[in-house]
């Protein structure tokens, strides 16, 4: 996991997704086998700048927002896509937030 600023997220978003704008979280699925025999799921990159803004807008602290963005990124790593799944990822994310981040 990497926590960076908006500028870094904008460069990554442009380079890998062709979207020349900052975003709050990016996920890069991998699936490589590590020497330990475990599978590396990928990387999650979070914008600390966006997390701070969103925490203020939503009325909770930065740690809560970073936790929610981490959860969102991990769901992408395991194959969910909120742009294509007709609300399935949103439903699962909400359920997990209630269970893991009360």
Can you walk me through this structure?
The protein has 102 residues and is an alpha+beta fold. The chain has a single domain (2-100), classed as Metalloproteases ("zincins"), catalytic domain (Collagenase (Catalytic Domain), 3-Layer(aba) Sandwich), CATH 3.40.390.30. 51% of the residues lie in helices and 14% in strands. The protein contains 4 helices and 3 strands. The chain has a 3-stranded mixed sheet, with helices on both faces. The two termini are 23 Å apart. The model has no long low-confidence stretch (mean pLDDT 92).
Outline the secondary-structure elements.
Layout: E1 2-4, H1 6-17, E2 25-29, E3 42-47, H2 48-58, H3 62-77, H4 88-100
Parallel strand pairs: 1-3
Antiparallel strand pairs: 2-3
Helix pairs in contact: 2-3, 3-4
Based on the model shown, name its key terms.
three-stranded mixed sheet; single chain; 102 residues; 4 helices; alpha+beta; Collagenase (Catalytic Domain)
């Amino acid at each position: 996991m990497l926590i960076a600023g908006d500028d870094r997220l904008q460069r990554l978003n442009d380079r890998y997704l062709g979207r020349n704008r900052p975003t709050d979280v990016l996920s890069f699925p991998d699936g490589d086998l590590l020497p330990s025999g475990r599978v590396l799921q990928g990387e999650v990159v979070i914008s600390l700048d966006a997390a701070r803004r969103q925490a203020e807008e939503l009325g909770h602290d930065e740690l809560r927002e970073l936790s929610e963005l981490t959860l969102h990124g991990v769901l992408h790593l395991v194959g969910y896509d909120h742009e294509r799944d007709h609300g399935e990822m949103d439903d699962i994310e909400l359920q997990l937030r209630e269970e893991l981040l009360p």
